[in-house]
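User: I've been trying to design a sequence by hand for this structure and keep getting stuck. Would you show me what you'd pick, starting by listing the structure so we're on the same page?

Assistant: Good idea, let's start from the same input. This is the structure you sent:
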């Protein structure tokens, strides 16, 4: 199926690895030109070159921390007018409710709520003026069902979800859709980083920790960045123009609820 986004310009934040990279690759495969971002320049440029080589699209990179005002300003300056925005950043560290003070919450809110909101605030007016736009925010399954040790993530991402629910309905009339993708456990560095402490605590290997987590997922495996990217492309497609303010869970059935 042709997704109808050939030649569109997409800003994909935090995309040198993992789920962001999956989205960038999938958009490029559909012919979208990319502005890619991550903090580490070397991995970012290597991923960008791999995408240029594989898909022949234009890829511009900006090495910057998307969670800071300065980093965002540099990304936005290079990005200019974009048709598609995929927001993403690293997730907050795990812990226990009693560990976290105001500064921890401010950091989590900056990274996982206020950064995507600032990007939307900057880019929505241009999309609306041009009569077409797609925004996809990478959030987490934790907005549907809290992950106790990720309280900072639960809090920040739920705040973003509330913002999107209202804002998506204010911009849809101009041909702009905003939706969220909610990853369950995917095989990325982030998943490995969360398996590590479990392995240490339980005195088992990382492979055993992974196998135990996989056993809790109805699909009996972690998701892949490619599957995640395919869902992102669909939400960015012409065909998805009537999907507004939704939260699409990609979790292999791991979140146990009816609707
Ligand atoms: P990942 O494999 O660790 O990749 C993170 C990517 O984001 C890297 O390219 C990283 O590059 C970049 N990045 C991180 N912080 C950044 C920042 N401040 N500014 C710009 N770029 C930044 O992580 P992932 O698994 O793809 O996860 C992506 C998001 O989904 C995270 O918020 C994570 O919490 C959430 N999530 C993931 C899972 C999962 O199972 N994987 C499940 C639920 C939610 P640099 O380090 O060079 O900046």
């Amino acid at each position: 199926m042709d997704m109808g986004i050939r030649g569109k310009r997409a800003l994909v934040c935090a995309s040198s690895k993992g789920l962001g990279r999956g989205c960038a690759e999938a958009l490029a495969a559909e012919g979208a030109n990319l502005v890619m971002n991550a903090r580490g320049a070397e991995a970012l440029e290597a991923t960008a070159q791999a995408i240029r080589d594989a898909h022949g699209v234009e890829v511009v990179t900006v090495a910057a921390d998307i969670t800071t005002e300065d980093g965002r300003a540099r990304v936005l300056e290079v990005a200019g007018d974009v048709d598609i925005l995929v927001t993403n950043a690293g997730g907050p560290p795990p812990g226990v409710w009693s560990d976290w003070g105001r500064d921890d919450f401010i950091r989590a809110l900056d990274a996982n709520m206020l950064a995507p909101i600032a990007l939307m605030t900057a880019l929505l007016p241009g999309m609306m003026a041009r009569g077409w736009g797609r925004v996809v925010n990478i959030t987490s399954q934790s907005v549907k069902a809290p992950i106790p040790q990720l309280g900072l993530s639960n809090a920040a991402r739920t705040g973003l979800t509330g913002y999107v629910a209202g804002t998506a309905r204010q911009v849809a009339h101009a041909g702009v859709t905003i939706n969220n993708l909610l990853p369950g456990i995917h095989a990325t560095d982030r998943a490995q980083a969360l398996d590590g402490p479990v392995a240490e605590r339980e005195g088992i290997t990382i492979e055993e920790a992974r196998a135990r987590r996989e056993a809790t997922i109805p699909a009996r495996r972690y998701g892949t960045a490619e599957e995640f990217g395919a869902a992102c492309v669909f939400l960015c497609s012409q065909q998805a123009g009537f999907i507004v303010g939704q939260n699409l869970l990609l979790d292999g059935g791991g979140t146990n609820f009816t609707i």
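That's my pick for every position. To get oriented when you compare it with your attempt: The pocket of NAP is lined by residues 14-20, 37-40, 43, 65-67, 88-91, 138, 140-141, 183, 185-186, 188-191 (CB under 6 Å). The helical segments are 18-29, 41-55, 69-79, 102-130, 151-171, 189-202, 206-215, 225-236.
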